[in-house]
Amino acid sequence: MPVQSLIRVEGKRCGLFFRYRPPNPDEGSVKVYPGKLNVTDTYRVIPVTLDTSVEDVMIAALDQFGLDSGDLNRYRLVEVSLDKGSVHERTMDNTESPWAIIKSLARDSIRQKDNTRFYLQQVDEVYCSNVAIFVGNLPPNLSQRQYERILVELLGKRKCFTGKFTPRFRYNRV
């Protein structure tokens, strides 16, 4: 409806909903981030259609990053999405269509679509992040080593942790 023809009822706010319909909804672009690949670029924009597969996106991204796209088995495309404060990661199958995923997400939520990224990673690359564990009701005035022992007893032996285990303590008095 034309904006001029909208009538405002007293006491009510006028609600306008705009929806952009692209000229061709079956094509667009996705941003592919290099993960921990040894490149200087932040991301590359890859043009896609509904027929573009993950394999096609990986080949185009590797070429644009200046890497050898000859051996695709060394790489994978990972879909990472932020949903309600938690991060979800999923390795994509080479036959999937990233554009179909983006279109589906946009239909449900533009925010969810904007919070979804694609990362190109090497298959042998292990993705891990720092995890902060907050533990309450610990006895006060112990040494760091004593706190570490308590946490190791609660969480298990150190050998079950991958990477570096560095407890950091912040003392807050309540």
UniProtKB/TrEMBL annotation:
Pfam families associated with the record: RA (PF00788), RBD_DGKtheta (PF24099)
Single GO BP term: signal transduction
Domain Ras-associating: 26-125
PROSITE patterns in UniProt: RA
InterPro entries hit by this protein: DGKtheta_RBD, RA_dom, Ubiquitin-like_domsf
Protein name as it appears in the record: Ras-associating domain-containing protein
Biological classification of the source: Eukaryota, Metazoa, Ecdysozoa, Arthropoda, Chelicerata
